């Protein structure tokens, strides 16, 4: 099983069999409040009728069609809808099946772009410590989570990592901090070290999610944009978690007012209902690759299931639903209430830090000696048994409920966590 302690799971399997709205159900009929939107993906809540119907209709109409040298309508419809909510100018869309594939596609696009400009010497890729860009070789290599890398002996070469953004941040900072603000300046040092002519792209999550919700300091992303632009380096935002309303806007790029050259999404694109990811590229990147190529296939890359009819149908219904219910605005309107509620856990047993932005939060616990992650994992199991789904990474609890969450459910999430933390050593 993926990212699972298989022996523990086998000893005590925790199963989910159905879902509706804000709740999962277990085989014995218990309701589990979804504090994590599944895996940060079910932004509109579970079992949404219009998405179910769209998938059923697509399956009955066109179960599969190749998208190599052929087209079918749904991915084009979705591409237009997606382009309309991407940051201005990022309106060239390529479909994948996951966040990992989106990351590797974006990195390959960056290399193809420089090559098409006659700068094939630009091969270095720069990621960030505590970054997560999925589990494929490109994403793993630019990612900065030891556990994802150490077990595998080979990585891409020519990869550097910037420092993560949480180093000097005071505990219990709400939203963006003001310390540590010049940390993006490290990129200038890497440029000085290697030469800009060797660097293809910088890839970051605007807010690091999987390593425990690390909110950048004010001005950080703007500074990365300035430095990359000054040196002809492409800037890639991995918005697999942050897109589709998590911060109260369509993208984090919008929220922070910084436009990258390439932006990756997945998860919330289909409300989690069918696997799908996408990469949005600027016209400059797209046109350079397409116009710069000789006759024939311009971007020699793709997946059997790129633009799959069921996924595209789910994506169209999902983006329509987000718009009809104004869910991004709803999330933005809840953000202050969310902040107050999660910071109410300050003072709860074991809690050493809380950070938040939009409708996402990280609650960091002290680690047990010699057993990093054990305390949070126990909290995860106990919360589940008490009817709440949380997500844990090392000793950090990450929360990201569906954007339909009600105030009472926010309070319930917080109070159940406080109770469980009080019960565990
Ligand atoms: N990038 C980011 C920022 C993610 O959070 C994730 C998944 N948590 C991925 C990439 C990988 O996505 P997937 O699991 O769909 O491959």
Automatic annotation (TrEMBL):
InterPro entries cross-referenced by the UniProt entry:
Aminotrans_3 (IPR005814), Aminotrans_3_PPA_site (IPR049704)
Which molecular-function annotations from GO does this UniProt entry contain? Answer: transaminase activity
Q: Which cofactor does it need?
A: pyridoxal 5'-phosphate
Q: Name one Pfam family in it.
A: Aminotran_3
Q: Does the keyword Transmembrane helix apply?
A: no
Is Ribonucleoprotein among the key words of this record?
no
Keywords from the named record: Aminotransferase, Pyridoxal phosphate, Transferase
Q: Which residues form a coiled coil?
A: none
Q: Which family does it belong to?
A: Belongs to the class-III pyridoxal-phosphate-dependent aminotransferase family.
> What protein name does the entry list?
Aspartate aminotransferase family protein
Q: Which organism is it from?
A: Sphingomonas quercus
Q: Lineage in the entry?
A: Bacteria, Pseudomonadati, Pseudomonadota, Alphaproteobacteria, Sphingomonadales
């Amino acid at each position: 099983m993926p990212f699972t302690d298989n022996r523990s799971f086998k000893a005590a399997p925790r199963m989910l069999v159905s879902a509706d709205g804000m709740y999962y159900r277990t085989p014995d009929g218990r309701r589990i409040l979804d504090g994590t939107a599944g895996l940060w993906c079910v932004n509109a809540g579970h079992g949404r009728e219009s998405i179910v119907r769209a998938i059923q209709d697509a399956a009955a109409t066109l179960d599969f069609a190749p998208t190599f040298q052929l087209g079918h309508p749904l991915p084009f419809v979705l591409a237009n809808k997606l382009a309309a909510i991407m940051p201005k100018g990022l309106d060239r869309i390529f479909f994948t099946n996951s966040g990992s594939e989106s990351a590797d596609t974006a990195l390959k696009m960056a290399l193809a772009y420089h090559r098409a400009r006659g700068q094939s010497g630009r091969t270095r890729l720069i990621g960030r410590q505590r970054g997560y860009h999925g589990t494929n070789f490109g994403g793993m290599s630019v990612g900065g989570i030891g556990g994802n890398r150490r077990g595998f002996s080979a990585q891409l070469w020519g990869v550097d990592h910037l420092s993560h953004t949480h180093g000097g941040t005071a505990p219990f900072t709400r939203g963006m901090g003001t310390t540590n603000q010049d940390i993006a300046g490290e990129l200038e040092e890497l440029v000085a070290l290697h030469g800009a002519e060797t660097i293809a792209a910088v890839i970051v999550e605007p807010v690091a999610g999987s390593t425990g919700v690390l909110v950048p300091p004010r001005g950080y992303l703007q500074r990365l944009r300035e430095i990359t632009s000054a040196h002809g380096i492409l800037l890639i935002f991995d918005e697999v978690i942050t897109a589709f309303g998590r911060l109260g806007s369509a993208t984090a790029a919008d929220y922070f007012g910084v436009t990258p050259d390439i932006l990756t999404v997945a998860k919330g694109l289909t409300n989690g209902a069918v696997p799908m990811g996408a990469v949005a590229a600027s016209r400059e990147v797209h046109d350079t690759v397409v116009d710069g190529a000789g006759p024939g296939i311009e971007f020699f890359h793709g997946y059997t299931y790129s633009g799959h009819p069921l996924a595209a149908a789910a994506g169209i219904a999902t983006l329509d639903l987000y718009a009809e219910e104004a869910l991004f605005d709803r999330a933005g309107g809840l953000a202050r209430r969310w902040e107050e509620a999660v910071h109410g856990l300050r003072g709860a047993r074991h809690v050493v830090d809380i950070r938040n932005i939009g409708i996402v939060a990280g609650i960091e616990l002290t680690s047990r000696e010699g057993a990093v992650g054990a305390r949070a994992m126990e909290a995860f199991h106990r919360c589940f048994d008490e009817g709440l789904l949380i997500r844990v990474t090392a000793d950090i609890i990450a929360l990201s409920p569906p954007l339909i969450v009600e105030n009472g459910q926010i309070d319930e999430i917080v109070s159940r966590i406080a109770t469980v933390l009080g019960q565990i050593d």
